[in-house]
Amino acid sequence: MIEVRDLTKTYGRVHAVQDVTFTASPGRVTGLVGLNGSGKSTTLRILLGLSRATRGAALINGKRYRDLRHPLRQVGAVLEQGLAHPGQTGYSHLVTQALLSGTSRDRVKELLDFVGLDAAASKRTGDYSLGMRQRLSVATALLGEPDVLVLDEAANGLDPAGMAWLRGVLRRHAADGGTVLISSHLLNDLEQVADDVVIIGQGRVLHTGRLDALIGGTRLRVRCGDPARLWAAFEHYGATVAADGQVLLVSGLTAENVGDLALHLQVPLYELVTETTHLEDVFLSLAEAP
Ligand SMILES: Nc1ncnc2c1ncn2[C@@H]1O[C@H](COP(=O)(O)OP(=O)(O)OP(=O)(O)O)[C@@H](O)[C@H]1O
Fold first, then answer.
1. Is 241 exposed, middle or buried (0-12, 13-18, 19+ CB in 10 A)?
2. Which residue has a Cα nearest atom 5 of ligand 1?
3. Per residue in 87-131, pLDDT tens?
4. What is the pLDDT of residues 264-284, one digit of tens each?
5. Which end of the chain is less enclosed by CB atoms within 10 A, N or C?
6. Measured from the CB, is residue 40 less than 6 Å from ligand 1?
7. Where is the signal peptide (predicted)?
8. Mutational pocket test of ligand 1: of 11, 186, 204, the residue with most ligand atoms within 8 Å of the beta carbon
9. Using H for helix, E for strand and C for coil, what is the string for the chain?
């Protein structure tokens, strides 16, 4: 379980995060999304004891990272920078980390196989591709069999097969009762794995909740000969209307309603498409709202 409460971090006059509050629950994958510079890494770094909060708290299983008795057995982290020394082989990196967390060498072999790096285990990590380094980071995070996993942009550099593999790892971890918190700007990928989302913008939480309550709704894309006239008519019948250039985006009416109204008003329709709302749509409307 991860609990972030009223978390605030300031660097001089910059509020990197401000009053950030959310929970990542066991058995669920929670996605942390935000534009560049919105405060994701700051939040995760404080959670992992790499930076101090100015105010508020970020707790793992009820404790701050520095108060955990066996941190490597309670939380596994995949951070953007990666931790392996470029001169070390994948195998020796994992053995060193295993010693630190009191894990057996057998587990190292098992994990190398699990993350698909057994054939590259004796290569220097400096010669690894970005995707291979990410797989090594995942293996390192899983070494101590922690119940909490924290990942910062872990899908970066993975090819589509690697991304599908990582989603499987995270889903299985949650299905086994673990807690997963992952930051990502790959929203289509995140949509396939997250149960809950926390959306942050300019250091503040814009939305937090179940992903299935946020997406999956429908709206209509309407391209027509007289957008202003149809816009007014749609609003008259209770629809919510927005514009994407010359195209109207309409929620709250069916395609039949729109077709009938256009016919009645003698406005030619050039395009009428039903779209499903995705995380990216919701995210952009929240992140770009004034
Ligand atoms: N050490 C630091 N000193 C000064 N400002 C910082 C420091 N670390 C972060 N910031 C600022 O805090 C804000 C949040 O940064 P943070 O790295 O947490 O964002 P992010 O959401 O992880 O961004 P990205 O997606 O680009 O990694 C930014 O304005 C950033 O410039």
1. buried
2. 11
3. 899 999 999 989 888 888 889 999 999 999 999 999 999 999 888
4. 999 999 999 999 888 988 888
5. C
6. yes
7. none
8. 11
9. CEEEEEEEEEECCEEEEEEEEEEECCCCEEEEEECCCCCHHHHHHHHCCCCCCCEEEEEECCECHHHCCCHHHHEEEECCCCCCCCCCEHHHHHHHHHHHHCCCHHHHHHHHHHCCCHHHCCCEHHHCCHHHHHHHHHHHHHCCCCCEEEEECCCCCCCHHHHHHHHHHHHHHHHCCCEEEEECCCHHHHHCCCCEEEEEECCEEEEEEEHHHHCCCEEEEEEECCHHHHHHHHHHCCCEEEEECCEEEEECCCHHHHHHHHHHHCCCEEEEEEEECCHHHHHHHHHCCC
Our answer on whether the CB atom of 184 is closer than 6 Å to any ligand 1 atom is no
* Residues 85 and 26 placed together within one structural domain of the fold: yes
Residue 290: predicted pLDDT:
59
* Beta carbon of 38 within 6 Å of any ligand 1 atom: yes
- How far is 74 from 69, CA to CA, in rounded Å? 9
Same domain assignment for residues 150 and 277: no
Q: Percentage of the chain surpassing pLDDT 90? A: 73
pLDDT band at 82 (very low <50, low <70, confident <90, very high): low
CA of 40 to the centre of ligand 1 (A): 8
178 and 79 housed in the same domain: yes
**Mean pLDDT computed over 204-220:** 90
Domain CATH for 20:
3.40.50.300
Q: Over the chain, what is the mean pLDDT?
A: 92
